[in-house]
Amino acid sequence: MNNQNFVPFLQKNWEEAGFQKPALIQSKVYDLISEGKNLVGIAPTGSGKTLAYLLRLINRLEAGIPSQVLVLTSSQELAMQVVEVARSWISGSGMKVQPLIGGIIGRNTWPCAGIDYGKKNQSSQHQNTRI
To answer: I want to staple 102 with a disulfide (CB 3.0 to 4.6 A). Which of 24, 76, 88, 131 is the partner?
Structure first.
C-alpha cells in the first residue's frame, strides 16, 4: 500500500490524520482488496480494520462519475462505525455517506452503510429512509 497513490482528497485526509504509515492490517489487505479478492481480516479492536477496506473502496471512486459503494455489516452498531469512519475520510470529496438500517421490530435486521457520489444537484430523497 502506497498512500502516494491516493486521490487528492484522500491524501489530504491521510496527512491531516497524522498517519506516517498504514497500520499492519491496512498494509496487508490493501493489495488484496485492490485485486478484488475475498478475505477475512482478523485484528484487535482499534487496529484500523474499518479503514483498511474503506481506503481502497473510497480511493476507487472517481470524482464526477456517479457511483455507489454498499457495505453490509452484522449489526447496527458496526454500520454506524463504518458510517463515522467513512464520513471522516471522504471529507472534501463531495461524496455522502448514508446509514441504511432495515428490518421489522422483533426480527433480524440487515444494516449497511452506503457511500454515494452523485450529481451535486440531486436531492437527498433518501436522507432518512428505512428499509
So the answer is: 131
HSE value, Cβ hemisphere, 13 Å, CA-based, for 112: 14
For 68, the 3-state DSSP assignment is strand
DSSP SS3 for 27? helix
Q: What is the pLDDT of residues 97-110, one digit of tens each?
A: 888 877 666 666 55
Distances (CA, A) of 1 to 31, 40, 70, 98, 131: 7, 18, 23, 27, 36
Residue pLDDT, tens place only, 60-71: 887 677 888 888
Burial annotation 59-83 (CB, 10 A radius, 16+ → b, else e): bebeeeeeeebebebeeeebbeebb
Collect all residues with Cβ–Cβ distance below 8 Å to 111 and sequence separation of at least 6. Answer: 72, 73, 74, 75, 76, 78, 79, 99, 100, 101, 102
Q: Give the list of residues 6+ apart from residue 110 with CB closer than 8 angstroms, or none.
A: 72, 102, 103
